[in-house]
Amino acid sequence: MCELSEGIEHGRLTSRTKCVVPLRHEANFAHAFKCYAGSRMNPEQKCSVW
User: Fold this and answer.
1) Which GO terms describe its molecular function (predicted)?
2) What is the three-class DSSP state of 46?
3) Is the pLDDT of residue 4 over 70?
């Protein structure tokens, strides 16, 4: 689960991308799934999604 593909099909975001991108910016997600700091699913610079 800790990876992200390009995520665009026919000019639109895929359902997977719509789900994964917000999760990668949630500290609770990274902690729960033990994603390493700086990894694709736990970037050092996070955006506030909500």
Assistant:
1) metalloendopeptidase activity
2) coil
3) no
Query: Which candidate, 43, 28, 40, 38, places its Cα nearest to that of 2?
Result: 40
Between CA 12 and CA 29 the distance in angstroms is 25
Running DSSP on this structure, what letter comes out for residue 35? P
Distance CA 42, CA 1 (A): 12
Which residues, at least 6 apart from 28, have a Cβ–Cβ distance to it below 8 Å? none
**SS3 state of residue 8:** strand
- Write down the pTM of the prediction: 0.64
Distance CA 9, CA 48 (A): 25
CA distance 34 to 49: 20
